[in-house]
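I hope you will forgive my troubling you with a question about protein structure. The matter concerns a single protein, recorded as an amino acid sequence and a row of backbone structure tokens. Please examine both parts with care and let me know of anything in them that strikes you as inconsistent. Thank you for your consideration; the sequence and its tokens are set out here:
***
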Amino acid sequence: MFIRKKRAGRYDYLQVVENHREGRHTRQRVVATLGRLDRLQADGDIDTLMRSLGRFCAQVKLQEAHSRGDLRALGAWSIGPELIFGRLWDRLKLPAIIGGLLEGRKFEFDVERAIFVHGRLSRSSWNFTNFGTSSRHGAAPPVRGRL
């Protein structure tokens, strides 16, 4: 079922219409005529009808709650490339390696997180098949000693 606007004379009318099959053809049948569009809009009847129908539709309830600002996030989850990259990052023990190389340095920001974010933002430059020795920009020398 759906709502359609139908012109009759000088006025537009709203109708509830359903599709049904007759043999091999699909036909439309008017279930109800709701009234003249101009009067329904002026009286606020369309908004009232939508609110009334919305009680039976979870998606409309969700949209209304969002519009009112009644929704709040319950949490955030890493999915897709973020999850894979994060697990690889941890399994390679990169936070400890980077932390060890930067030990004693007094950076005013978390260098390990900055490198992680940079890697995520430019993930196309990472080549995991030869991690640390190759990238799409050419060979990268291994890191030795202190930075």
Observations:
- The chain has six helices and five strands.
- The longest strand covers residues 11-22.
- The longest helix spans residues 58-68.
